[in-house]
Amino acid sequence: MSTAAAPQRPLTHGVVLDLIRAARRISRVELVDASGLTGATITNVVRDLIDEGLVEEAGHAESTGGKRRTLLRLRARARFTVGVQLDRSSCTIVIIDLAGQLVARTAIGGAGYRSPHETLCMVADHVDSLLDSAGVDRHRVLGIGLVSHGPQNLDDGRLLSLSPMPQWHGFPIVADLEQITGLPVLLDNDATAAAIGEFWIGGVDPASTYACIYMASGIGGGVVSGGGVYRGGTSNSVEIGHVSLDINGPECSCGNRGCLEDYAGPPAVIAKAHTVPGLAERLRFTAGETETLTNFARIARAAVAGDADALTLIRDSARYMAHSAISLTSLFDLDAVVLAGQSFATAGSIYVEAMQAELDRAGFARDVHPVRVTLSKSGADAAAIGGAVLVLRSEYTPRDLRRPDGRSLRYGSSRATALPLTAPS
Ligand SMILES: [Zn+2]
Known about the structure:
Elements: H1 11-23, E1 26-27, H2 28-35, H3 39-51, E2 55-60, E3 70-74, E4 80-86, E5 90-97, E6 102-109, H4 116-133, E7 141-148, E8 152-153, E9 158-159, H5 173-181, E10 185-189, H6 190-200, E11 209-215, E12 219-225, E13 228-229, H7 261-264, H8 266-273, H9 279-282, H10 292-304, H11 308-332, E14 336-340, H12 348-362, E15 372-375, H13 382-394, H14 414-418
Parallel strand pairs: 4-7, 7-10, 11-14, 14-15
Antiparallel strand pairs: 1-3, 2-3, 4-5, 5-6, 8-9, 11-12, 12-13
The structure holds zinc ion.
């Protein structure tokens, strides 16, 4: 199936597209200033982008004495990207346009106990329906950014985890979804994507160093500094959910002991709720591991409504989370911590309060600068939006760029997102 996937485009074209997107309207002379490229290069790149239908001229700037400068803007509806956040309990699908604006979204159930192929067929059906209902021409879709938990092998597009189910381990989810949809697919970590999504929608100071702690069924993290995403060696970085709080703690599915996730994550909180007499019945828990987010939301709602037992459980979870946030700030000297994902949606304010108090009390650099804890502006959608943004940005980097050691980066992996992000103004 043919798609709008662009021919391999020099990096300069991506830089120029990004600058036009951020400025909304900008002249060629301003592009020269902002990019550091020569006037001749800008002229050629802009001509290419206009020929490709991605950019158009849009009136003139106010005269400053000389000839009035022609302004350029993106043709926002020329291209679209899809973002899919997927785990066992949840799946959010978004469409954004070339200008990075949200066009449509939907939320469906997660993988549950389905096989990988069955799940990806379900996702593909919902992507099709969303594109249809939003009136988006499929030939203008650049690709799908599929984001999920780690560990992942971005080189060959596989999850290396026993979750959602053991048969997902090593399954070629990128190749399978590409085959089902006929669209290019990019895989990335949900927490990294959420950190990028938050930057994109303007939820953080672009100059800051911040961490995004992402909690859905599990807990992950991403760090952005000066607009660049910290990737580590293989994009399996900042896995704060699997940083140990107790070497004598329970054995975790990752092989470590006493991981944050096993104290503060939704399954752990639900397990504790089952030990409180009468609480599971009072909150009308439903059975099954696929009900994790639903049951956790019930505890969160009860906590916010003042149920003492539920409040104790959420505050305990927040205390552990605060402890890990201190570790993150000590490692990365953060200016801010952003909380994103479905599991912060209801009781996020309880987490913010607990984490802010602990960072003010014991953050390592507290006498130098404060660390601000906030809730994500896009909440549950942050990871899916980040996935769509990653595809948009992958337009800038040749798809099969290879590292000096010969390993494929695929598009959208470390090299592509090492470029500083430029948020829309
Ligand atoms: Zn672990």
